[in-house]
Design brief:
Length: about 625
C-alpha cells in the first residue's frame, strides 16, 4: 500500500500514484529526498512559506536507533523559527556538565557550556526518535507539504525548468514521475542521489569501529546525568545521559575483539560494570556497530539539486554536531529557495549555499577530530602527558575559561557568502555586480563564492562598509519587549524576513525602503514599548551593535547581517534584484503540542498536531 500524506491528511490510500506508466507528472516547487532530521526540518521550513513541497522517504517508520544525542542553541533557534523549539525542549535535558576523566575516573578537564546569545540553553541532550516525531507532527500543519513514505527516488533528470524524478513505491513496486523546480537531497551518507549525480565523497573512514549501546535506566546511579568522556587508554568510552529515561554508552572495538560478541548483553554488562553499573540498573535496548567518517561531497550543488546533511558531509560524533550541521544546511538553503521561487532574488543567490556552509562544516569537523584525539588516544606516554598537563592549563586564567566553557563549536561567519563586502581600497567608490538570470549559475561555486561559469555572485559591495565588522555574522537573540508590551525572543518579532534594524536614532535608507524592506528600531532598556520598535531588555543587542561598530543593519531572513553601516552613514544598496512580495509573518506558525511518549522505547507517537499559543507567547526567560 502506498503511504502518502498531504499536510495533515495522513495515509492516503493505495493507487494514488497511478500505474507503471507513471501517469501525468505532478508538479512541485521543491522535492525533499530523505525524512531524517535534515529533511524534516527542510519540510517544516518550506511548509511555512506556502510553497508546494513533496517529501520522499524510503522507510515506513522513524528510524528506531537513536544516533544523535545532543544539539545546541543555534539549532534550537532554527527550530524556534518553525514554532517547535519549546515543544522539543520538553523532551530534552539541558545544562548538564561534561567531564574528561582518566583511567582512574578522575576528571582532568571539566566543562560547562556557556550561552552564545541565541536565546536557548547552549547544549541539550535528546532522544532522536522522539525528536523526529515532533518534527514530523510539525510538518502535518502544512497542507502544502505531501509526505510520501515508502517511496524512493531512482532517477533524476534535469532540464532548464526543473527536475524530473522517477519514484518507486517500495511497498507495491509502483512507479511514478514527478517534477520539481528544485531538489534537496538529504538522503544520508550513502546518498543514492549523490551517486546519481556522480559527485565524489572525499575523505576517510576510521579503522576503529564503535559499539553504540542504548539503554533504559531502571535505577539511577550517582552522577548518571553527567556526560563523561572516559579517556582510558585500555578502552575509551562515552558515558552519556539522554532524556526520557535513557542512557547511552559507546565503546571501541579493539584489535582481537569479537565484534558480534561485543554487542551481546553479556559483553555489554561486563563493560559497564567497570563503572559500577549493575544488570539491575539498566535494560539494554539495542547495540549497533558504527564507523566514524570524515567526508565532504565535492560539490553541494549540481544544477537544481542540493546536497544537505550527511549526503553532503560526515564527521565524527565527539562534539555532537553531525545532525546540527544538516539542520544548519537547510536553514541556510530554504529561505534562498523561497526567495528565488517567489522572484524576490535572482537564482545566482543559490550559489552562496556551498560558499557559506562548506567552510563552516569543515571547521566544525576539524574540531570534532581534535576532540576525538583527546578522548581516544591509546598511547600510554601521550595519555600520561595529557592527564598531567590539561589540569595545569585549567588553572591558568584565560586558558581555563576557553577550556571550561566547552566553546569548541566555531561560530559561523559567512565571509565569502551572500553579503555586502568591500572589493577595492578606492575610497568613495561603489561597485555593484550584475545579477545572473535563472539557469546561468548551475555549475557550483568557487572558494571565493563566484560562479565557475564566470557569472559574478549576486551582491553589493561598498568600501565604506569596511568600517563595520557586522556583515556575515548572525545577530544574537535576546529577550525583548515587543510593541504590545509582551516579553518575547527577538526572532519572534523579526519574523524570518528581510529587515532593517536601527539603533534609537535611525538613519533614512531610501534604497532599502523602495525595495519594500521594513524597519525596526532597537530602544535601550527602560524605554516604553512603541510601534515599530523593540526594547532591548538586557542591553545585549545594543552592545553587539557597538562591538561591531554598526548602528544600522540589513538583516537576511536567517538573521545574518547582509550589510551594516555606522552612525550617520547610509547602508550599501540592497542586493540587485531584491523585490519583496507581501506574505504572512512566518513567525506566527503555530507550534505542535504532542504528549511526551509514555515509554521512550516504544514506537513514536502518531498523535495529531494540536495548535497552541504562538511562539511569541511561549516560555519565559
Amino acid at each position: 500500500m502506498s503511504e502518502i500524506s498531504a499536510g495533515n491528511r495522513a495515509g492516503a490510500g493505495a493507487g494514488d500514484g497511478g500505474g507503471d506508466d507513471g501517469g501525468g507528472d505532478a508538479e512541485y516547487d521543491v522535492a525533499v529526498i530523505g525524512y531524517g532530521p535534515t529533511g524534516v526540518t527542510a519540510a517544516n521550513l518550506l511548509g511555512a512559506t506556502g510553497l508546494r513541497v513533496v517529501v520522499l522517504e524510503r522507510d515506513a517508520e522513524i528510524y528506531s536507533r537513536a544516533r544523535a544525542i545532543s544539539t545546541d542553541e543555534e539549532v534550537m533557534r532554527i527550530w524556534q523559527r518553525i514554532g517547535l523549539a519549546d515543544r522539543l525542549k520538553q523532551d530534552m535535558l539541558a545544562d548538564r556538565p561534561l567531564d574528561f576523566v582518566d583511567a582512574r575516573g578522575r576528571a582532568f578537564l571539566s566543562a560547562h557550556p556557556t550561552p552564545r546569545g541565541h536565546g536557548h540553553p547552549p547544549q541539550m541532550f535528546l532522544y532522536q526518535p522522539a525528536l523526529e516525531q515532533v518534527l514530523r507532527d510539525g510538518v502535518a500543519r502544512h497542507p502544502n507539504v505531501e509526505v510520501w513514505l515508502r517511496h524512493e527516488c531512482l532517477r533524476l533528470r534535469q532540464d532548464a525548468d526543473g527536475v524530473e524524478l522517477t519514484v518507486v513505491g517500495t511497498a507495491d513496486d509502483s512507479v511514478r514521475r514527478l517534477r520539481a523546480r528544485y531538489v534537496i537531497a538529504a538522503d544520508g551518507g550513502s546518498s543514492l542521489t549523490r551517486a546519481q549525480l556522480n559527485v565524489g565523497y572525499e575523505g576517510r573512514t576510521y579503522e576503529d569501529r564503535w559499539v553504540v549501546i542504548d539503554t533504559k535506566m531502571l535505577k539511577p546511579w550517582p552522577d548518571h546525568d553527567r556526560l563523561r568522556f572516559r579517556c582510558d587508554p585500555t578502552r575509551p568510552a562515552v558515558d552519556c545521559p539522554t532524556p526520557l529515561g535513557h542512557h547511552r554508552w559507546e565503546f571501541p572495538i579493539l584489535p582481537g575483539d569479537d565484534e558480534r560478541h561485543l554487542t551481546t548483553d553479556e559483553a555489554i554488562h561486563a563493560m559497564v560494570s567497570r563503572y559500577g553499573i549493575g544488570p539491575d540498573q539498566i535494560e539494554i535496548l539495542r547495540a549497533t556497530v558504527y564507523s566514524h567518517h570524515v567526508r565532504f561531497a565535492a560539490r553541494f550543488r549540481v544544477g537544481r539539486v542540493f546536497l544537505a546533511g550527511d549526503a553532503a558531509h560526515a564527521m565524527p560524533p565527539w562534539i555532537g554536531q553531525g545532525m546540527a550541521a544538516g539542520v544548519r544546511d537547510v536553514a541556510n538553503l530554504c529561505w534562498k529557495l523561497d526567495a528565488v521561487l517567489r522572484g524576490e532574488l535572482p537564482e545566482s543567490v543559490l550559489d552562496s549555499y556551498e560558499a557559506e556552509r562548506k567552510p563552516h562544516v569543515k571547521e566544525v569537523t576539524r574540531r570534532a577530530v581534535f576532540v576525538g584525539r583527546i578522548i581516544t588516544d591509546r598511547r600510554l606516554a601521550v595519555t600520561r602527558v595529557r592527564d598531567a598537563v590539561l589540569p595545569l592549563l585549567n588553572r591558568i586564567p584565560g586558558v581555563a575559561g576557553r577550556l571550561q566553557d566547552s566553546n569548541w563549536i566555531p561560530v559561523a561567519h559567512y565571509a565569502d557568502g551572500f553579503r555586502d563586502r568591500p572589493r577595492t581600497k578606492s575610497s568613495g567608490i561603489t561597485f555593484r555586480t550584475r545579477a545572473s538570470d535563472a539557469g546561468t549559475a548551475h555549475s557550483g561555486t568557487s572558494r571565493t563564492g563566484t560562479s565557475r561559469t564566470g557569472t559574478s555572485r549576486t551582491g553589493t559591495f561598498r568600501t565604506r562598509a569596511s568600517r563595520t565588522t557586522a556583515p556575515g555574522h548572525q545577530i544574537p537573540q535576546p529577550w525583548v519587549t515587543a510593541p504590545d508590551g509582551s516579553r518575547v525572543r527577538l526572532d519572534d518579532v523579526l519574523g524570518g524576513r528581510w529587515l532593517l534594524l536601527h539603533d534609537a536614532l535611525p538613519t533614512p535608507q531610501p534604497e532599502w525602503e523602495r525595495a519594500g524592506v521594513p524597519s525596526l528600531t532597537v530602544l535601550p532598556a527602560g524605554s516604553s514599548p512603541a510601534e515599530g520598535a523593540v526594547v532591548d531588555c538586557d542591553g545585549v543587542l545594543r552592545a553587539w551593535l557597538t562591538h561591531h561598530r554598526a548602528t544600522t543593519l540589513a538583516l537576511r531572513p536567517d538573521a545574518y547581517v547582509y550589510a551594516a553601516a555606522p552612525a550617520g552613514t547610509p547602508l550599501p544598496p540592497p542586493p540587485e534584484g531584491l523585490s519583496l512580495t507581501p506574505r504572512a509573518n512566518t513567525a506566527s506558525t503555530p507550534p505542535v503540542a504532542t504528549p511526551s511518549p509514555a515509554s521512550p522505547a516504544s514506537p513514536a507517537s502518531s498523535a495529531s498536531p494540536v495548535p497552541s499559543a504562538s511562539p511569541a507567547a511561549q516560555g519565559t526567560p
